[in-house]
Fold:
Amino acid sequence: MKIWVKWLILGLLSIAFGVFVLSNPVAASIAVTTLAGVLFLLSGGFQIFAGFGEESMGSKFLGIGLGLLMVLLGLSLMWHPLEGVISLTMLVAILFAASGVARLITSFQMRDTPFFWAMLLSGGVSVLLAGYIFANFASVAPSLLGLLLGIELVFNGAGLVVLAFFLRTAKGDVRDKLEQRLNK
Structure:
């Protein structure tokens, strides 16, 4: 099977899963929260294991303590996924606001460049989106994580489909270099 066909199939699967997720974003939000809990639990377990291998007592206690906190966070997200959805949605809103403000500040440092308006618009949209989430938190929180996941899957799939068609039409050295990078 040619490499471009593999990327096309992967892209179409990503789009299909994105549409599936968008059809029930609340269930997807709960699934994302539960998966985050599992990952925190595993990461905390590895952190605890690594903490026992530290030589200094300070590093040992810090490593084990952080690992225990991660395990507790993971268990909390797994046992109470709806509360976890609320917490993670609040975190997403705060991150949107913070990154938006950072891009707004950066845009004014780029005032004399042709990139000013794009950066200003990007930051403004993030701040407005964060404001919308905070203003409508009760109605937005249960489905936001699922919506973001679905949108990401659809756009990721679209990007992979475009990559597949580019690889199909690319010629010579360009195609060879891309295939080498993608096969690594």
